[in-house]
Design goal:
Blueprint: E1 2-4, E2 10-14, E3 20-24, H1 36-48, H2 52-72, H3 76-85, H4 90-102, H5 106-128, H6 133-140, H7 147-168, H8 173-181, H9 188-197, H10 201-227, H11 240-243, H12 245-254, H13 262-279
Antiparallel strand pairs: 1-2, 2-3
Helix pairs in contact: 1-2, 2-4, 2-7, 4-5, 5-6, 7-8, 7-9, 10-12
């Protein structure tokens, strides 16, 4: 969504992390402008390496938590949101713990968690007065997901939608392919998600062919890495791609470190439990 400032060439855009960003708009033909944020995100993801969607989510997560520490620690609505989710999830709480000393904001974290500990101590006292295990579990169950996880779901969907939109539009397809091919390519979880969202058969074919090419190259690099560890070939030089191939293989299967997939896990567990109950 965008609003043009009256009598100006500036356009006010809703940004995925911050409320608004002002972007200078150059005159372009109708329907030919590629999303400016998509272009910037893809270039930043190329510098980060690996899956571009993972890279963008990691950058936005770090930015969100830094903003929380420096600007939102005392915000009442954030406190209420964190009470409902019992703070941040394991991944994002430890991410916060790594950032706090770097930003000299340990006191901010302590202030937030003092409030959370006080609230949940009272909830535990309430639970101790109950006799029903179900009621106790209900009192102690988080009412909301981790707020960063919820944002990450939106960021993932926005990134994949922007990529698919750019690859589908004939006006932007060539540039979108160049930008995408300069990145490390989608990891397997994000490739699956992209294929689920795609409604253009040519885009599906392009993504699959690109993935096959990348995985063939990864397989060759892994084979060379293993071969050059044989004592007979240890004197042969090893390229950076070969040296990092085992790390790239891990990321290809699961994405970059720090990608939270709680929803996928929870849904698979629920499906498994339902099947088990039916069999019983």
């Amino acid at each position: 969504m965008a609003e043009r400032a009256k009598g100006s060439s500036l356009r006010l855009h809703r940004h995925p992390t911050f409320r608004f960003a002002v972007v200078a708009e150059r005159p372009q033909k109708e329907g030919t402008m590629m999303d400016a944020f998509f272009r910037l995100d893809m270039k930043a993801a190329t510098q980060a390496g690996g899956c571009p969607v993972c890279a963008i989510i990691a950058q936005r997560t770090d930015r969100y938590l830094r903003f929380f520490l420096t600007e939102n620690v005392l915000a009442p609505y954030i406190r209420l949101r964190l009470i409902a989710s019992q703070g941040f999830c394991n991944l994002h709480a430890h991410w916060l713990a790594r950032l706090a000393p770097m930003l000299d904001e340990a006191l901010g974290v302590a202030t937030v968690y003092e409030h959370l500990v006080n609230e949940w101590r009272r909830q535990l006292q309430r639970a101790s007065e109950e006799t029903s295990p179900q009621r106790i579990a209900q009192i102690l169950r988080p009412q909301r997901r981790c707020p960063v996880c919820e944002h990450a779901d939106t960021w993932e969907r926005d990134c994949l939608s922007a990529l698919l939109r750019a690859l589908t539009d004939p006006q932007s397809r060539d540039e979108a392919q160049r930008l995408y091919e300069a990145t490390g390519g989608l990891c397997l979880p994000h490739l699956r998600r992209a294929l689920q969202l795609a409604d253009d058969s040519e885009v599906v074919t392009y993504l699959l062919q690109d993935a096959c090419r990348r995985w063939e190259a990864l397989e060759r690099d892994l084979a060379e890495f293993c071969r050059k560890h044989d004592y007979r070939f240890r004197n042969e030089p090893m390229s950076d791609e070969e040296r990092q191939s085992w790390r790239r293989a891990i990321e290809a299967f699961v994405g970059k470190e720090g990608m939270h997939r709680q929803n996928d896990l929870d849904n698979s567990l629920r499906r498994g439990l339902r099947r088990w109950l039916k069999l019983g």
